[in-house]
């Protein structure tokens, strides 16, 4: 009996060891043929004294979970993100009420950039199921170039509409001059041209290499000194500077918005409107009293009547102007809150990935020897999921935070449904016409 138990225990141990070895081999192969191997090879290939330690002794449950997430969960995230970004783009571009706003142009551009990035990641994902499209010359350079450009455009688009909200909140008199649709198009065009020009180096410094008879896309070692400088510039431009700018501006916008909301909630209702009405009434009375005729004359009575009519008309115009002003102010406040949430979520979901890049950047500056553990690569792979979720979750943020987006989405859906019913009706009419014509 004891021998059977010992044999079963030994067999269980052999099975577990065999499963761990299979998991390790599959993870190593997936690492060399996946986006994590690519991202971190790019990240640390520029370090002079970096070494990679592929040995890891421990429980492989986490590695198996990462493999399952990549094989089954990642494509779902990508497809949901592509669908959501496409709908967001159509809502912001195809709705007349929204497409006139400069913030809508930024959000539509962000949706298009995120879609290009998700398609690139989807091409890389095929390596996890044995289809190595990414690790071929041509595909390797193109996908890397798109990832570089999209990473730059994504973060600086967020900085752009955050800067626009800063102007709206702190310099409202300059909003009509600086926060226009035309200026937003100029900013997006400038960012795109700059990114396309700067990241052309990736086309010439990348090639397919082999490790353990497995192809993988990586930086060419002969360009290491040049890539050190470029990687430092890229980290400053896409991580450090935009993150600091977003955090500082969001903090100021949040404090200002909270103060404004508290001031409105603590003030008595219609207090501001009454004060403006009183100001206009006093001003009109003062103007009329300067040219008022002597009492008892006919002209004096007509002037008094004219003064009362003028004050009443002024009060009505003031009330209309105040309602229009407060309505427009509330619209800008809602837009500011929605964009504040979008930019804050962007920073929070990208913060772990940025921490890895800043760590590598510091090591590059200090020129120290650095040993990269395989466990660090596995954790980076998990952290990358937050980056993909950020690119796929903007549609849900818009639905949750923007009333205008929900209204425009509903109208777009109703318009699409009516056109679909019209096409179906026309197809039935055509079929019946052909049937009776025969």
UniProtKB/TrEMBL annotation:
GO CC term (a single one): plasma membrane
Transmembrane regions listed in the UniProt entry: 72-93, 105-130, 142-163, 184-205, 225-249, 338-356
SUPFAM superfamilies membership: Family A G protein-coupled receptor-like
Sequence segments annotated as region (Disordered): 284-303
Similarity comment: family membership: Belongs to the G-protein coupled receptor 1 family.
Residue ranges of domain G-protein coupled receptors family 1 profile in the record: 84-398
Subcellular location(s) of the protein: Membrane
Keyword check for Membrane: yes
Highest taxon, organism lineage: Eukaryota
Annotated keywords: G-protein coupled receptor, Membrane, Receptor, Transducer, Transmembrane, Transmembrane helix
GO molecular function, one term: G protein-coupled receptor activity
Membrane topology: Multi-pass membrane protein
PROSITE patterns: G_PROTEIN_RECEP_F1_1, G_PROTEIN_RECEP_F1_2
Species, as recorded: Paralvinella palmiformis
Protein name, per record: G-protein coupled receptors family 1 profile domain-containing protein
